[in-house]
């Protein structure tokens, strides 16, 4: 097939000349600007500078939030807070308040926790409250019942007795393993936990005293340096901590606020002496459930 080779018309030539003139004019203007700027010591050519410093996430405003992307961390404007507090702070506050009320006895075992009432009382929304309840469930302080909501954990008399007897057996095994052959393990963690209990008792902080109490018994079993033993022991302690706190609270009323800490200091001193018989004797009358008669007789 033949190819037709037609000459451009006069109109096409005229348009091409005008477009070429405009392009040349633009190019000349850019070149002239570049020459003048260079002559004055200011080169307008973009240059690749040093890399930007990393974002310090610790100093970001509370009114922005970050998102991990394929290119790094993106900072997006917009409130990531509720009532002036970050979501994590609201969860922590709810956990702290509920934990304190449970361990102080203000919320009794078996008592229902109604979301609507708690959100109104704490002045928060449902999302942080539900997360707080989930965390308290992991700590053994509340339990989620299918189609019945959430309540403070309640154990049967048999469960309480079995868990305490299991705790006793595991602790005896731990100290026998730790002190055999005259070994003298460090009691620094035991003493730190005892001092925490003493300070909390003096200040009337039931939640802090419960934390020190838990830390003491974990440190006691930790003396054995036996990972599987500790993994077995921790869930037992988690289930018992509400009743351990109840025993301490009633002991403070019946005897003195410092009596619970004194019992644990005596046990710590026995461990520190390295006398296994003295430790086992102290464990034998440690009084872990002396004041739980109402629950154990139920």
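^ Assign residues to that structure.
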């Amino acid at each position: 097939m033949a190819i037709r080779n037609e000459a451009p018309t006069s109109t096409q030539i005229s348009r091409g000349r005008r477009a070429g003139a405009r392009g040349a004019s633009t190019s000349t203007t850019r070149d002239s600007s570049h020459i003048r700027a260079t002559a004055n010591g200011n080169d307008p050519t973009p240059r690749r500078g040093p890399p930007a410093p990393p974002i310090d996430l610790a100093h970001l405003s509370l009114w922005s939030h970050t998102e991990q992307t394929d290119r790094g961390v993106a900072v997006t404007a917009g409130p990531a807070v509720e009532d002036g507090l970050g979501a994590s702070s609201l969860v922590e506050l709810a956990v702290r308040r509920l934990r304190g009320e449970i361990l102080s006895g203000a919320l009794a075992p078996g008592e229902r926790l109604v979301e609507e009432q708690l959100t109104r009382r704490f002045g928060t929304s449902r999302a942080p409250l539900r997360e707080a309840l989930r965390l308290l469930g992991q700590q053994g302080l509340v339990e989620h019942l299918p189609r019945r909501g959430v309540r403070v954990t309640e154990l049967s008399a048999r469960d309480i007795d079995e868990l305490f007897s299991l705790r006793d057996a595991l602790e005896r095994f731990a100290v026998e393993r730790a002190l055999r052959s005259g070994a003298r393990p460090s009691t620094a963690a035991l003493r730190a936990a005892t001092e925490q209990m003493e300070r909390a008792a003096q200040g009337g902080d039931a939640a802090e005293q419960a934390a020190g109490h838990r830390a003491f018994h974990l440190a006691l079993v930790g003396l054995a340096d036996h990972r599987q033993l500790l993994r077995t022991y921790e869930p037992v302690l988690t289930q018992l901590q509400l009743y351990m706190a109840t025993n301490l609270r009633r002991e403070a009323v019946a005897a003195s606020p410092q009596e619970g800490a004194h019992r644990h200091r005596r046990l710590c001193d026995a461990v520190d002496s390295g006398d296994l018989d003295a430790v086992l004797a102290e464990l034998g009358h440690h009084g872990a459930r002396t004041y739980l008669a109402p629950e154990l007789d139920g």
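The CA atoms of residues 142 and 152 lie 4 Å apart.
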